[in-house]
Design brief:
Layout (H helix, E strand, L loop, with lengths): L11 E2 H16 L4 E4 H6 L11 E2 L3 E4 L2 E2 L5 H20 L18 H8 L19 H6 L5 H23 L4 H14 L3
Parallel strand pairs: 2-4
Antiparallel strand pairs: 1-5, 3-4
Helix pairs in contact: 3-6
């Protein structure tokens, strides 16, 4: 299925495909998910993305405005479905269900102690402030508890992406060949 109107063009312009992509998300997950260009996320100054890497905030999936990675429209369409489904998987399979204030059920909950230990006497926990451009999500609050927050985030991201990928490959077997192809292509582009 070609997502671009002009069959002679290999690229896909997100704006032209947005409606079809939203229908795809709804059909796959049963959720009404917005699809936006990555530039919109950067404009919001949240700070966790660039204009090249797809991401989601749990309600909106942000994708590159133009998909032109391959020589054919069919290959670009398959790649677009893979990156879209990957981000949708984070929403559909519980990647945004964490609540900082919900007590741990699997391990001793150290969050209250660690939160208090990280603050200076009399200091309150950082709050969200759109005016200051600071957004303290539950996950960012959690990662700030670690001595190396960036390392904790990187480890979590690797494990969470592996979990989501395994669920996608299991739940959506028809997408598996395109997913494996995109994974091989991405690995081939990594530096030694």
């Amino acid at each position: 299925m070609a997502l671009h109107k002009e069959t002679l063009s290999s690229y896909i312009h997100l704006e032209d495909a947005r409606h079809v992509l939203r229908l795809y998300c709804c059909a796959l997950s049963g959720r009404d998910v917005s699809v936006e260009a990555l530039e919109r996320l950067v404009e919001r100054n949240i700070g966790w993305s660039t204009t090249q890497l797809p991401t989601t905030d749990g309600a909106t999936i942000y994708l590159p405005s133009i998909i032109d990675r391959f020589a054919t429209n069919a290959e670009n369409s398959a790649f677009l479905r893979v990156i879209l489904t990957c981000q949708l998987g984070h929403i559909e399979f519980g990647g945004f269900d964490f609540s900082f204030t919900h007590p741990s059920t699997k391990f001793r909950d150290l969050r209250p102690e660690l939160s208090a230990a990280r603050r200076r006497p009399g200091e309150k926990e950082p709050a969200e402030s759109a005016a200051e451009g600071v957004y303290a999500t539950d996950m960012s609050r959690f990662f700030r508890l670690f001595p190396e927050p960036r390392l904790a985030l990187d480890i979590f991201t690797t494990l969470e992406n592996s979990r989501i990928e395994a669920r996608i490959m299991s739940e959506y077997r028809g997408l598996a060949p395109a997913y494996r192809g995109a994974r091989s292509e991405a690995l081939g582009m990594r530096p030694e």
